[in-house]
Amino acid sequence: MTPVSEHDPDIGLFTVLREDGSADPKTDPNVPDAVLLRGYREMRRLRMIDAKMIVLQRQGRVGFYGACTGQEATPIATGLIASEGDWVYPALREQSVMLVRGFPLDAFIAQVFGNSGDVQKGRQMPSHHSGRSVNQVSWSSCIGPQIPQAVGTAFAMKKAKSGNVAFGFMGDGATSQPDFHAAMNFAGVWKVPCILVCQNNHWSISVPTEKQTASRTIAIKARAYGLPGVRVDGNDLLALYKVLSDAKERAKNGGGATFVEALTYRIGAHSTSDDPTRYRSEAEVNAWKKKDPLDRLRKHLVLRGLVSDAGDVAMDEELSAEVAASIKRVEALPPPDRASLFDDVYATLPWHLREQRDALVRGPSPVPHG
Amino acid sequence: MSEMNMVQAINDALRLEMRRDDRVVVLGEDVGKVGGVFRVTAGLHEEFGEDRVLDTPLSEGGIIGTAIGMALYGLVPVPEIQFADFIFPGYDQIVSELAKYRYRSGGEYSAKLVIRTPVGGGIRGGLYHSQSPEALFIHVAGLKVVCPATPYDAKGLLLASIRDPDPVLFFEPKRVYRAAKGEVPEGDYTVEIGKARIAREAQKAARMVTVIAWGAMLYEAIAAAEEVKKKGIECEIVDLRTLWPLDIDTIVASVEKTGRVVVVHEAPRTCGFGAELVSLITERAFLHLEAPPERVTGFDTPFPYTLEMEYLPLAHRIVPALEKVAGF
């Protein structure tokens, strides 16, 4: 039995970006400039989308929103390394993987409005996106059920010898659920091409990680399931790129699943319905703001001579115009048709739903949300 | 045609479909080498191998959860839950995920599983090997619920369930797994989901009663019908076969003919499926009713061990209900 050491990947913290913005040559994955710039642009766009959606919610134009501010590095890195045939099972703060993989911005924003532009036909609360075109399913507010589903998809991939991987995401709170245990256990036994990623953002709404688990780290839990576990700096795009790429290579080569704990912080509220000043200090938030993943990537790109203040201003103008135009188009769309409430419960409409639909359509309309 | 019991008929359906469609996989606790605790999957592991017949870790949530992920990717999983009583660790996956996948994705995804599970009492199984939780699944939008009573229907309905685009809960009445025998065609055939069967037709008489039953209770209803026939009461027995979507037309037609109805089920009485059946019948055939509908059911208690024959709605409890509605 080897003793636990700080050098173990599930106890230490894998990092590439240093304080001064340089990449540690010992760990640098040497990501091509174009890929890094793409990631940078996607991160800036995502932060802008989140900010604008929160404003829309405050103005009463959308019902709810869950931003991922401060946690953009994990979903963006995932989007950069995912192949076309890979599948993504996100949790609340990884919706944006689909944007990086080419899901249209209008359709993404339409999900938040829940109107007829939404591929889900307005069936779900905002921030529960899915898109068949990019092999991304939606998470469940019930917390955790997507994790064993990702393992099942990976089983099917292995059986089909597809060479693809399934990503399954969760927050630190989800690691308390039976579905977490089931997923880790099945992934270990079946040795499937799966990458299970926990974004440990330190808070499950108001409950801190130390009240979720007495474990020294979350990554170390992988040992008990016979899986490699890695603890990575979740605000370091380069480190995530390296860890996720390695996990993907291992999965593709028959090495089975990997569990990744990405250490990060939820800078904003849990959602637009939450007030974090009731349970955590400003000092804590400010300390994490200094480790902002977008700032850290920018510092690195400045050092490499890839971005500049003037370039950022131009980029933000472009992105802002893109997002504003999308909101304008999407907001003008009508709500889903009334009768569509009964579609997709079953593949075809059974008699009881036909009766209920006909009664609804004949009846009076409700007073809309005020 | 050959005579089979229910276990053989279900096994035959699984084997046939696994040969026909290599997307079909079977997974669950003990379903592999040993062929299931009731031997329903016997021989499949040998024929189809490790990656199509999986002995899983002991985790119903894991079985259903991973099966959903397989289904989304294009496999057709037929997980077995060893006893319906054990399904609850997987209940969230069924209710929150499986039933809602198509709806919540706007029709972009569907998670199609057939969850097979033995159901019902009368096997000295006590609290946790005897329950009949069908109403808990009928109440969930998006699921189909099937419960055959004969080997013929078991095979035909299982083949139809595996080919159906929607998720199906396939309840197997374990009390008659081996006791129910009958002629079963060789090869392929299906029994349509959503169609009930008149298991016994009422001869024209002054006092007729429709009895609605499913699973193992069908045989109790038949026994009770024979008993009251001696007293001039004619029973028409509707074997539902599919509990949801319900074959309401067959039920209403029978009640219009007989004017009286008794519903029999093993599950507890309150909010049992019988309550819904009686509501639908009174909404649709009120003016045809000669007597208030009756329910003969399990009690609103947990399922008992020693006194299970007191708990079950067996023929001796169905007979007085038939006499009551006939004499109203």
Can you summarize this structure?
By secondary structure, chain A is an alpha/beta fold.
Tell me the strand order in the biggest sheet of chain B: 9-11-10-13-14
CATH class annotation of the largest domain in chain B: Alpha Beta
CATH-scheme architecture of the largest domain in chain A: 3-Layer(aba) Sandwich
Query: Mean pLDDT of chain B, rounded to whole units?
Result: 98
Question: Which homologous superfamily in CATH is the superfamily of the largest domain in chain A?
Answer: Thiamin diphosphate (ThDP)-binding fold, Pyr/PP domains
The average pLDDT value of chain A, as a whole number, equals: 96
Please bin the fraction of helical residues of chain A.
Answer: 40-55%
CATH architecture of the largest domain in chain B: 3-Layer(aba) Sandwich
Topology, number of strands of chain A: 7
What is the radius of gyration of chain B computed over CA atoms, rounded to a whole number of angstroms? 20 Å
Give a quick account of the main beta sheet of chain B: strands, pairing sense, barrel closure: 5 strands, mixed
CATH topology of the largest domain in chain B: Rossmann fold
Task: Give structural attributes.
heterodimer; A: 370 residues; alpha/beta; Rossmann fold; two-stranded antiparallel ribbon; 12 helices; B: 328 residues; 5-stranded mixed beta sheet; 4-stranded mixed beta sheet; 35% helix
Notes on the structure:
- The complex is a heterodimer of chains A (370) and B (328).
- Chain A is an alpha/beta fold and 370 residues long.
- Chain A contains 12 helices and 7 strands.
- Chain A has 2 domains: 304 residues, Rossmann fold (3-Layer(aba) Sandwich), CATH 3.40.50.970; 33 residues, no CATH class.
- In chain A, helix 1 crosses helix 2 and helix 5 runs parallel beside helix 6.
- The N and C termini of chain A lie far apart (63 Å).
- The mean pLDDT of chain A is 96.
- By secondary structure, chain B is of the alpha/beta class.
- Chain B has 2 domains: 183 residues, 3-Layer(aba) Sandwich (Rossmann fold), CATH 3.40.50.970; 130 residues, Rossmann fold (3-Layer(aba) Sandwich).
- Chain B has 12 helices and 14 strands.
- In chain B, the strands form 4 sheets. A 5-stranded mixed sheet of chain B has the order 9-11-10-13-14, sandwiched between helices.
- In chain B, helix 7 links the parallel strand 6 and strand 7.
- Chain B is globular.
